[in-house]
Amino acid sequence: MFQMPEYRAPDFSSQKFLDAPDVKWKEAVMDGVAPEGYHSTSMYPEYFKINGEWKLAEESRMDSSVVWTEGGTLKVVENRNLKVGDKVILGRTENAEEGIYLHSTGFLEEDEEQDQFVFRQGRSRETSYARDYDRLFELLRYERDHGNILWVMGPAFSFDADARAAMQKMVEHGYVDGLMAGNALATHDLEGALFHTALGQDIYTQKSHSNGHYHHLDVINKVRKSGSIPQFIEDYQIDNGIIYSCVKHEIPMVLTGSIRDDGPLPEVIGDAYEGQKAMRKLVKKATTVVCLATMLHTIATGNMTPSYRVLEDGTIRPVFLYTVDADEFVVNKLLDRGSLSATTIVTNVQDFIMLVARGLDVI
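Below the sequence we write its predicted structure tokens.
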């Protein structure tokens, strides 16, 4: 049975916090430019002492500035989005010396300790993941009813018939609240739905079709002619796949482009910063994020995902981040996010989603 870790706030009655000065701030004098000495955020809860009171920045992300608003709240803003007159928090220390405190241990048990030296601390193909899968099954069952599950997916999913079918079942059974991907995942998934191929190869037999290398281009062309993905699904009576199931069940999707894209599909956001803004809207709702076989999307998502979420009733809970890839380098990029907020699994994503779907009894 899943048990939500309890958040332990800092003891602000201790002398260190009582003696700490109020945090300093300075107004931005140019749009998109932070004042010298600005404080840059992490993924952890951060508190700022203002008028003698310690306040939490409730919606955070990495590598951004903190703005003290007219309403007395703290807003985390990417530097490029700063406006003239914004009161930007200053300070480069994080242990209350400058009125800033980074709380990295809020979800750890009081008696939890970590050895200074342990074998196999990194994650590799030799790591045992049985316990990780069991915990993930429990977490996803909990989140389906109480949270928001965001999936970040690379195109490898669309290359396998069973993986596509398993992910479709995950959507149908309520385990998907949002999807972020690129042009390729959507294109090849729709190619699989229309032609039963991905990059011209049958998604079950892997047999190449004659002129199959045209298939994804034909799909893009047809979707663009239809004007949108939902209209294409209706026009061509598509009845299977990841994108189809997301459209059918009204799951919000953010598709962002890259410099190498064909097409792209009409819904793909070509402006990188507009794409990042759209991604962050989904991330702000997420309580569990699962990143699968997409290095750049995974790193981008990790950078904009805090390790915590403040709920409407004021409760602070962790945000769980999973990253799954066949490449050890990719999954280990986010290991420094903290043990509670990041779990990495080295495997191919087709096997991963089949195990998860079976573990949740959706297939």
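The first strand starts at residue 24 and ends at 27.
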